[in-house]
Every structure is written in C-alpha cells, then in structure tokens.
Write a structure and sequence with these properties.
253 residues, 3 domains, five-stranded antiparallel β-sheet, four-stranded antiparallel β-sheet, 9 helices
Length: 253
C-alpha cells in the first residue's frame, strides 16, 4: 500500500504543479486584459492553452485511483505486515497476539466491509500504514485522562450485583470477565465498551494501586489460584508486556 500510494501521490503532485502553472497563465492573461496590453494577448493565450493541455494530460494520467484490494490485504496479513513495519520505524509498540492488535492504550480492529480500521471506538478511514501509525503515536503521547475513581465506582456497582452479600471488609474475589458482562448487558453497551477496551482500563488501574472508590473502597486483583476456573483476560501494555487478569475484590475498612 505504501509503495502504491507514494507513486500515486507523486503523480497527483504533478497535477498540482500543472494546475498552478495553468492558474498563473490565466492570471497573466487576465492582467493583460485588465491593462489593455493588446500586443501580449496572442502569446498569453497560447501559454494558457499550452498549460491547460499539460494539465489535462496530467489529470488523464492520474485521475484513476490505484487498485487496492483492502479486503484481501486485511485478510492475507499484508496490511498488518506494513503496519508493523511502519510502527517499528516510528518506535510505536504494536502487539499482534491472540488474534488482537494492540497499540496501548487502544485496540485496533480491521473492518474490511468499510475499508477502515477501528481504533478504540473511533472508525478511522485514513488507513495508509504510516499515517495510521502517526495518529497512534499522537494518541499515545496525549496526557492520561483516566479517572480511576469513576472506573472503580462502576466496577463496584457491578461487583455488588455478583456479590450481593458484600457489606464491607474483605469482599470475595469476583471474575473480571463476569464483571465486564454485567457492565455490558445492553447490546449497545457491549458495542461501545468491548472487552479489549475494558482491559486497557484495567491496565491503567493496575498502575494505580492506591486508587479508591468514591466511598473509600480499595481494590485487590487476584490470580487464578484464588478463583478456581476463572477466565483469564490478557492485555498488553506500551512495552508489549503481557498482563493477565482474573478477578478483583473490594476492601473497605
């Protein structure tokens, strides 16, 4: 894709240059008419026609969009290979594992039907690999606006549904996969808050062990040994390191 688009971009740059030349010729002829420089009319008209012919030729050579089979590129892995190369060149950590593409703090999903890439919740139609990676780098460099208290308050509400006996103290371990299901019971909620985005929030929370809910609950993350059979949820941070999440408990007092 990069090679094809670069070649077409150069062709279109030629169109721009010829259009600028045609515009200059038209302006020169208009100035001659404005000044009444009758003697220059023939040469100015000839120059304008010549530049217009060159412009038409350039347009004819460049007006056809290159044949890019996005569905095939997405399906074959060719697009991901180019994306990975662009990420390496830009020093952006791109993780492809377990069928997921992660560029912390967002997950990427290829959408061949719309010829776009979903970056977190945003549908991004600018899919040239170098451009997409540049946008991801900007996203990674933005200040972290994650609100741990608000996130924990939401988790606590779902937690008390699954652990209705909890009144304070050390609560039981509850599977994070089950908590996400409660948070996304409505179909639209599931679409707006996929498990990949939930895991990005868990990565952020994991960096803030002293975070509290609005009522002062702290949280503890538990491993699989504390929750027999708990489903493992894996996420990858900005360094590409894998983090496994199983369960959480809330503690008050």
């Amino acid at each position: 894709m990069e090679t094809v688009l670069s070649a077409w971009e150069e062709q279109l740059a030629t169109v721009e240059r010829q259009a600028a030349a045609a515009l200059r010729s038209a302006r020169k002829l208009r100035k001659a008419a404005q000044d009444g420089a009758v003697a220059t009319f023939p040469s100015a008209i000839a120059a304008m026609r010549q530049d217009a012919d060159r412009l038409n030729e350039a347009v004819g050579q460049s007006a056809e969009a290159p044949a890019l089979d996005i569905a095939e590129a997405f399906g074959s892995g060719a697009f991901l290979a180019e994306l990975a190369a662009a990420a390496k060149a830009a020093d952006v950590m791109l993780v492809q594992r377990d069928g997921r593409i992660t560029a912390y703090p967002v997950v990427l999903r290829l959408e061949p039907r719309t010829q776009a890439v979903r970056v977190g919740r945003k549908l991004e139609r600018r899919i040239r690999p170098s451009v997409l990676i540049a946008e991801l780098k900007k996203l990674q460099q933005r200040p972290n606006r994650f609100n741990a208290r608000v996130f924990l308050d939401r988790l606590l509400k779902a937690y008390t549904i699954l652990a209705p006996e909890y009144r304070g103290g050390d609560g039981p371990l509850v599977e994070l996969a089950a908590l996400h299901e409660v948070l996304t019971l409505w179909p639209q909620a599931a679409a707006d808050y996929p498990v990949e985005e939930f895991l990005c929030d868990m990565l952020r929370l994991n960096k803030l062990p002293e975070a509290r809910t609005g009522r002062g609950h702290r949280f503890e993350l538990g491993g699989s040994t504390g929750t027999k059979g708990a489903k493992r949820l894996s996420a990858f941070d900005e360094t590409g390191a894998q983090h496994d999440f199983y369960a959480i408990r809330f503690v008050l007092g």
